[in-house]
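Example (one chain per record):
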Amino acid sequence: MKNDSWYNAFLETIGKRYPKKSQLTQALISLLSLEREAVYRRLRQDIVFPAHEIVKIALAWNITLDEIIGNSSNQITFQMRQMNYLDPSDEEVNFLRFVIQSIAYLKNFPDTEFMDICNKLSRQLVAGYPYLNQYYLFKWMYQYGGTEQENIPFSQTIISEEKQQVTKEYYQAIKLVPISNFIWDRNIFEYLINGIKYFCSIYLITNEEKELIQKDLSDLLDYMLEVATKGCYPETQNKVNLYLSELNVDTNYSYTFTPEANICFIHVFEKFEIYTFNTEMVANFKTWMQLKKRTSIKISEVDEKSRIEFFTKQRQLIDAL
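Predicted structure:
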């Protein structure tokens, strides 16, 4: 079987995901929960990947049937993985931990770069602030949770202890990425504050809960001012570039790029992403997103006047909430 053309095409495809064999090996160890020698034997073709492992790899790495059998369709596929963030299953929690392990592994590669263009605060930043994180989950439940759950108040949007722990681990892991870039819509905090005011007006968020969210928002603003001033995460000293867009941002886009592997995301329905590992698409995505800098100003490290003006205005908005 190891000489079958489709199987060789499959091995070639997963090799393209991680061109360096050491990276491919580590990714397969993490994904399949195998010993290193077991992965080596599969890659040497001493034994073949069983069908259930091929399916798991294909689903996790967005590999199409055409790619597995070696057909060239010139189509670029995106995948969306739905996730129950309020009450995740064991499988979903394991997937989140796999994501965290993958992010943490990127610290070993100094050219790794993350970039996010956003009109709402990134999950990477919100994850460190429990009430702010709960607010985003509550808002998502209200908008997309189904008719039976439309009126669940903020107080009943309960996040399990396990999910809280995974969120903390995620918040710590993202600071290990060597280079991070954020391009913010100038009204990013105003959009958020308007939403909080709306839910207060229909009594789904109490004044006491609003103050807790406000405190988290104030702490996040202080933290991001420190990040912007230093140009890095203070905990890890890893580089952070912060830009303000002069044009409105219509949704959140992001990519994670390394010489070994890359992926791009389009964020949809608040909590979901559609993504692809397609090399050509990621390269185009990276180019398009970098061009966004042409209509943005950098406020991290440089342009102190613009940085102070922006953060002062956000402070006023938060204090008036």
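Caption: The radius of gyration is 21 Å.
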